[in-house]
Every structure is written in structure tokens, then in C-alpha cells.
Amino acid sequence: MQKAGFNIVRMAEFAWVNMEPEEGRYEFGWLDEIIEILGKRGIKTILGTPTAALPPWTLRKYPEIMVQTPTGQRLTWGMRKHNCFTSGVFRLLSERITRAMAQHYKDNPNVIGWQTDNEIGGHPMCYCHSCRANFQDWLKNKYKTLAELNRAWGTHFWSQGFGDWSEIVPPDKFDEHNPHTCLDWKRFFSWLNVRFQKEQIDILRALCPNQFVTHNFMGLFSEINYYDLAEDLDFVSWDNYPVSGKPDMTNNYNAAMAADVMRGLKRRNFWIMEQTSGSHGWGTLSRNPRPGEIRKIALQQFAHGAEAQVWFPWRACTVGREQYWHGILGHDGKPGRRYQEAAQTARDLHTLDEHLKGTTVRADVAIIYDYESVWALSFQPAYDENKYHQVIGRYYQALRRAGINVDMVRPGQDLAGYKLVLAPDLYIVRDSLASQIDAYIRNGGVFLADGRFAVKDETGLCHVRTLPGLLAEALGIEIEEYEALRGGIEYQIEEHLHRAPVTRTAIHYADWIKPTTALVLAGYTDWHMQPYAALTRNQCGKGAGYYLGTIVKEPAFYDALIRELLESAKITAEITAPEGVEVSTREGAGKKVLFLVNHTEQCQTVNVPAGKCEVLRNKTTGSAIELAAYDVAVIRL
Ligand code: GLA
Predict the structure, then answer these.
(1) Kind of pairing, strands 491-495 and 502-515?
(2) Torsion of CA 360, 366, 370, 371, to 10 degrees
(3) Do residues 224 and 194 touch, judged by C-beta distance below 8 A?
């Protein structure tokens, strides 16, 4: 590790039984020794609280801490993340091991920080009596009166009117139960996870004021409201594994989008706590990262705001469920191709340090990214293909193809600093958010919404106004009818984003849009759809509101649409690059740095500003730069 230029490791995140072999008896000697060995070689340690895997003694003594299924069965011990979060015993055990670790390591100069638990979320939901009672209490606190809860959940439907708080049952079939109940249950579950983490953080903050506290998030995972989970941390870290499928740009851009989501959680740079370093899986393997690819995967994250990274794992385990999760080293422990590449990456990161210090991604474009809409759409997607990240991805990928930085922002966050805001699949829209967007447009912002925008309020009741509700004037349209295009139904649309009209294909879903004041940028040609628009633009105040009421089959449509939006918002890219070469910039502290990431397996030539320093090669640029397969260039502008 030392030879490869590594200077941090993370350890102990599943080592509960090794640190507390029986309740209240702690053994840290083995860990002290490793931390010291590493410390002597200039390698600092991040410690994980170990609560994501339960020691067998916890089960022997306290069987009630295991998750209970909706049918009343306790899960079998032996996996990880199977605890009930309302169990007082579990919370106490979690506090005790956290406190014992914190007390032991608070003054250890080689321990620089903490990771809470591991990848919070992905737990099965628990349906025990305690969870049910806690859910009822949480609802009482939220709604105050049963009458208000009954109103917010529309319980006059299907005979659900509650006469007593104790009658409320957590839902388990999210495509059949009352969607309002499902939404609050998801919120409650997310809140439980956040509370659990907070209890650990409070201990770490009190005892270890000089060590940071972070958590390893899972990128586009959306079962937990990550904005809330991030709130109590110093910074966000995340685990990046983009080599699961064929090498393709969707995977590459999903890693970019995840990075932007992670940066948006606290609106600051993040760390990578687990970076892909080999072929991985629990039973079957993923493909092996190809020559140059793990370096490229790592540097892409720095282009999006990473400040540090840890590979996972260092060496493939010879034991246990994760034997196939390959790391920098294989089972034989011999430094090979991936080790050499990790060492090269470490040298690159040391070189980049002075150029990136004080910089972050600055974006003119924001996408509103909302966990509650994801949850609500998961119960009622309206059309089968409505997958949140695919919907966002169509615009996001076109923006990245255009070389434009993007921020992912929480609903309600101030939008004034952005020239262009997109709200794909923004299904739950409170009136306050609608008013904020309305004002944003009138004050000069360019805004785009699409199908299923603002259908519901915060408890999941359908708004009674004709869609798009409070935004009808700003968007200059009315939508009285809409449909899913099932069974392969396709409509033709004629799009006017180019000099000559282009024929496109509408799939999956269609709003029947009646323009009131909006211009029609694309309209349907099928006989019954001719009165309706597919894409509209409305001038409103100093700004413009766009609405796209369908999904268009051809990705080139989204490139044309993004070009139109960027022109309208007067945003230009730093440079243009060939397809497959991702362009990003970071700036701050008087510096501006351009990243070019070649995601392809071909050599690419990119036109760049001449006379600048290409930092990784330490050369002055000519008018073009050559990038080998998976190569990355970083240019100081
Ligand atoms: C997650 C965990 C790691 C490891 C990997 C592979 O990313 O955080 O500890 O278990 O999965 O299974």
C-alpha cells in the first residue's frame, strides 16, 4: 500500500464480533496493532461503526432485534442489515459499541475519521409490534388529530376511516395498499434510519471532536431520503461500482449522475469510500475492469467533485460471502495489473491535489431530484416504463453529451443561481414549490417539466386543478387528458427544433396538451392527436417554461431539446468533444480545471485551448489532445 502511494484505509465496518466478542467485553488490541502498523507507513485510518452485521450473541440474548416480516416471521440470522430499528435493545447495543470505539480511538492520531454503519438502507422493513406502534406515534406527531390523518389519507375510500390510532397498520404491498399510507410509511422508515445514524453521530461528535464523520452512500439508491441522511454528517462519501454491465455510456453517465446527486446532498464535494477495483459479485462475477478502466472510473469522480477515494477491497477475501468481490489484489495477494493501475491513479491524485484544492463543480443547470416523487411513483408509476433514473437520464445524458455541468438539487432549494432548471418526473409538488418555480420563470429562469409533473400534493392526494395546476399560466398549457401507451402503441410527432421539421416517435405515455399561450415545438400527427402538442415553449415574464408531455424514442431528440434549452438560457459549453469523451469543469480559489474523460476503447482527438498546462502529462497543450482508450486529461484553464 505504501509503495502504491496510498495514505488512507477504512476498516472495521463489519467487525462487531471481533471488537465485542461478548456483550460488554471489548477487544481492540488486534485493531490497534493494524492501525499502528499502517500509521508507521503514513497510512491513516477511517473506522466504521460495525452495526450492519450482528454478532451471534446479540441474537442468542435478544431475538427480538431481528426484522419481522409482515406475516410475523423473524428473519434468519446470518446476513447483514437485518435488525429492527425500533428495537430499544438494538439501539442500545449500537450506542454502546459506538461509544466504546469512540472512547478507545478518540485520541489516536492515526484515526482521522468515522464512517457510520455501512450503506444504510437496503434493510428489509420490519413489521413487528414495536415498529407498528412507533409508526402510529410518528403519525400522531405529524397529523395531531385522527380527523386530519383521515383527510390526508383519503380514508373514506375502501372503508378505511380510522376511529383509533391503534387501528393503523403498516402497508406491505405497495402496489395495492393506500398510496398515502405507503408514502408516510416510506417516510417513517427513512426517518428511522436517519435517527439510528444520528444516535451514533451524537456520540462520535461528543467524544471525537477532531475526527470527521461520514457515511458511505449508494449513489442512485433511493429507499432512504438521502438529503436527510446527509444532514448530520461532515461530508458525504459513496460506493461506486459502474462495471456491472457491458461497457456503455448509460453506465458511465449513471456514475456521473450519482456523483452529482451525492454532491447535491450537502452541496459540497464528496469522497468515494468504495471504488471499483476488480470483478465483483456475491455468487457470480461482474466483468473485469479493462486496462485503464479503474483509473478512468476513479478520475471521473474527481471530475464531478470527489476529494478523496478509497478502493474496495484491498485484497479479495479467501473466506465468507464476499470471496468473489475482487480488489486491488486477488486471493493470492500478488501485486499485478490492477495494483499497477491503482498506483498510477494514486500518483495522478497526488499530482492533481494542488490543482483541485478549493475547487468544486459549478453548474448553470439544475435538475430537481426528489426522493418522495421516486417513492410515490414506485406505487403508481402511471406507465410501466416510468423509471425515475431513466426519465432523468434522458435529459442528463444529453446535457453531459453537450459538455454541460449539472447540479442535482433538493425540491425547495433556492434556484436563483441557475439559468436552466429541469424537473423530470417531479410528481409530488407542494403549492409552495409550484409558486417558487412560477416565480423562478417569471424572473428570467428557463424551466422544463414533463409527464406526471405536479399530479400530487405532499400527502399524495391528486391536486384538483387541471394539470399542470399552479404552473398552467407559466407553462401556457392545459392538460385535461393523458394516457399510457401500452402494448407497443406509438404516435408520430413532428418536431420543429431543427430548421426543417423532423419526424419522431412518442412512446410509453402521452399528455394531451392544449396550448393556451404556449408555442408548439412538437405536435402529434395521428388523426385523433392532431389538436394536441407534445412539446411546448411559453414565454412568461422574463423567462420561459417548456413542457414535454411524452417520451421520445430517439435519443437525438433529447440532444435537440437540450440544445434549444441551452440556447434559450444562454448557456454555452466550455468545449465540444467527440461522443464518448465526457467534459467537466471544476473551479474555485482562482482556478479552473477541465477534465476530459475518454469512456471509449478507441483513441480520441479532442480540440482544446492551446498553451495551457495538461496536468497529468505535465505538458503544454497544442490545439488538440490525443486520449488513448480510457485515458483522462486534466487541463488547467
Ligand atoms: C457494499 C459494502 C461493502 C461490500 C460490498 C460488496 O458496497 O459496503 O462492504 O460488502 O458491498 O459486497
Answers:
(1) antiparallel
(2) -30
(3) yes
**Distance between alpha carbon 251 and the CA centroid of its chain, in Å?**
14
**Average pLDDT of the residues of the chain:** 97
Closest CA relative to residue 402, chosen from 364, 370, 368, 369: 364
196 vs 85: CA distance, rounded Å: 7
pLDDT given for residue 505 in this prediction: 98
Mutate to test the pocket of ligand 1, among 13, 239, 321 (most ligand atoms within 8 A of CB): 239
Residue bearing the CA closest to ligand 1, atom 1: 119
How far apart CA 574 and CA 132 sit, in angstroms, is 54
Q: Which residue has the cell 478502493?
A: 311
Closest of 578, 590, 536 to residue 561, by C-alpha: 536
pTM of the model: 0.98
Q: Which residue in the list 223, 274, 307, 341 is annotated as catalytic?
A: 274
Is residue 582 part of the annotated active site? The answer reads: no
Reduced to 3 states (helix: H, G, I; strand: E, B; else coil), residue 341 is: helix
Residues having CB closer than 6 A to ligand 1 are: 118-119, 216, 239, 274, 322, 325
Helix, strand, coil in percent for the chain, rounding step 5: 35, 25, 40
Instruction: Tell me the C-alpha to C-alpha distance, in Å, between residue 637 and each of 238, 361, 448, 608, 609.
Output: 29, 14, 32, 10, 8
C-alpha cell at 28: 481492540
| Residue 498 predicted with pLDDT over 90 | no
pLDDT tens for each residue of 147-165: 999 999 999 999 999 999 9
In sequence order, what DSSP letters do the residues of 134-203 get, joined into one string? HHHHHHHHHHSSHHHHHHHTTTTGGG---SSGGG------TTTS-HHHHHHHHHHHHHHHHHHHHHHHHH
C-alpha cell at 553: 424514442
Q: Give residue 118 CA to ligand 1 midpoint distance, Å.
A: 8
Angle at 509 between CA 505 and CA 515, to 5 degrees: 85
194 C-alpha vs ligand 1 centroid, how far in Å?
A: 20
> Could you tell me the CA-to-CA distances from 511 to 297, 425, 614 in Å, in that order?
39, 13, 49
Return the residue matching grid coordinates 472510473: 297
DSSP string, 48-88: E--TTS--HHHHHH-GGGB-B-TTSPBPPBTBSS-B-SS-H
Task: Report the 3 state secondary structure along 413-449.
Answer: CCCCCCCEEEECCCCECCHHHHHHHHHHHHCCCEEEE
